[in-house]
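Predict the assembly for these two chains.
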Amino acid sequence: TQLLEQSPQFLSIQEGENLTVYCNSSSVFSSLQWYRQEPGEGPVLLVTVVTGGEVKKLKRLTFQFGDARKDSSLHITAAQTGDTGLYLCAAKAAGNKLTFGGGTRVLVKP
Amino acid sequence: DTGVSQDPRHKITKRGQNVTFRCDPISEHNRLYWYRQTLGQGPEFLTYFQNEAQLEKSRLLSDRFSAERPKGSFSTLEIQRTEQGDSAMYLCASSSGGGVTNEKLFFGSGTQLSVL
């Protein structure tokens, strides 16, 4: 069982539609990060959420940290083809290592 | 600031051969991480360094894997007697440290290893 479970695993939508991806765990975290990874490249940090219930916006992306700090969601409004990629959530458990979820692959079709 | 650099970008090798990858972190970043990622999965932690000290290793890291960061700058990851199951993207990341809530990792583009 993975520490961080992401759903769905794959999402295909048309340009202009909205989408939400989820990151869930039975563990409580001090913070949680979201990354986006494009094919052939390393992940790039999008945001860090720290406070339970926190909502952060990055242009058309809205990130929410659950009240109990066990889960998080990423909502994209009016998706564009440039949003295509692998979205990863990550958090630190024991020690200093950052643990990643399995990712949600998003495909935005023109 | 040129970002995290990894070399080579691609490596094809035959089973049983040894391979070595290099990572050059962002200058003055004291932490360096190695991850492995297989297709369709998230990155899996392998090991990390604080300066030249290797502070944590994953159970995934068998005896065939060894990592070094001799002078606290660049790092190498060596895989001995490669197996087909070692085929993956090997990612390096660096950071300037920070606590649980504020550390930011910067990743390189990875080395894609294919073991035939």
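The CA atoms of residues 72 and 78 of chain A lie 20 Å apart. Chain A touches chain B at residues 4, 6, 9, 30-31, 40-45, 48, 50, 88, 90, 92, 95-103, 105 (CB under 8 Å).
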